Amino acid sequence: MTTLASTASGSGSAAGDTLARDALAVLQPGFDGTTAPDWVRRRLGEGLASVALFGRNVVSEAQVTSLTAQLRAERDDLLVAIDEESGDVTRLDVRTGSSFPGNHALGAVDDLGLTRAVSRELGRRLAACGVNFDWAPSADVNANPDNPVIGVRSFGAGTDLVARHTAAWVEGLQSTGVAACTKHFPGHGDTNVDSHHAVPRIDVDADTLYERELPPFRAAIAAGTRAIMSAHILVPALDPDRPGTLSRRVLTELLRDELGYQGLIVTDGMEMRAISGTYGLEHGVVLAIAAGADAICVGGGLCDEGTVLKLRDALVAAVRSGELSEERLADAAARVRRLARWTAEARGGADRTRPDPRIGLVAARRALTVTRAGAAAPVAEPVYVARFNPAPNIAVGDQTPWGVAAELERLLPGSTSGSFTGSDAGTAALAAAAGRRIVAVVRDEHRHDWMGSALDTLLAARPDTVVVEMGLPQAPPRGALHIATYGAARVCGVAAAEAVVAG
Description:
alpha/beta; six-stranded parallel β-sheet; 42% helix; disordered N terminus
């Protein structure tokens, strides 16, 4: 079948060629594999200006560096995007766990210099790999502790705290020539639904929205964030009909006109059910650009050439039918190309201060909160590590290891471990420990009744159990020793294991 855009290109029409190139320019697609596919190389020559890397594209930093070099051989001014928040949401360290703690740990320390140093070091790593666009940081205020998708991805529950650290994170990252993408506008913190699955709704009045959710985005704009990512959330106080990503009131009237933001607006992943399940992928993409978005994030799930061509053709057809103005598409494409130019120019002026590869572990150690109950004996012998596994959300994924077992097995040779879930998790863990002292590792105990029951069972039988909380520390501390890490990054596990042994 001949596609609309290819027909325009083949006809020799300069207008048709421009439309097709602009339609490709606003897409930020993913792809399969750890090398550059032929179809991506071809489309780069036809106008594609961005690509996105996901965990499936990453084996090592050397491999990512080679991959980005292959891509830039086709187009030097290419935007290479990645969803690298550090902490629980990591793509660069997807197989090992992040070398940097996430936002909640940095918020717990509340040292802006530390936040800036961590994001600067992350930016250096990304830049060295050829990645110049990071879909981070999360500027969401975690107003709802039961939020299933934000949690430790937020700097905290206080608006001022989140605003300060969002600005510092943006400044640190962008000092390395990597563009920051502050998300999820207008604020995803007060939701109890994951937009990967359905449309979350935030029923707050406009005053609450302006006073609680928007200040971190204002701070990011003041700090010079080069991009902002929209949220697939319905905020009736702003727009009762359409989620933020598809709302002109949210993206154009509020973000552009009222807040004065002139950088790139990127959508959250368009395959997420909040959009694709309600509006359809192709129609959703057209509505997003029409509403004021400039770039379309796609490829977390659908990562084939056919998807890219369908979206390109949907945008071209929308212009021809009058649903989308040619000027709006051209403006969006121009903003994408403008950001690509900024990243190329910023490389030359990137921060040249000495790298600090240990800053992540330093930050993770500083973030720990240790609570002792009574005079329990120090941990000096091999232990049994029982990890209680909640179902991971899609943003975090299930590829990345977490916990303290590997580090405790190194520090206390002979230690062993197991993972447990469900109503009999406590009994099963107690049996598996076979009399050894237990280190129980939990993640968001306050959100999972079965996890709380498992700890009840362990502590009734073994009051000397050590508890390590690697999610939001909302449940009261308990155990002979309780260690809150404020996140499940690899360095958080290392810091926690050190604290277990130190007692």
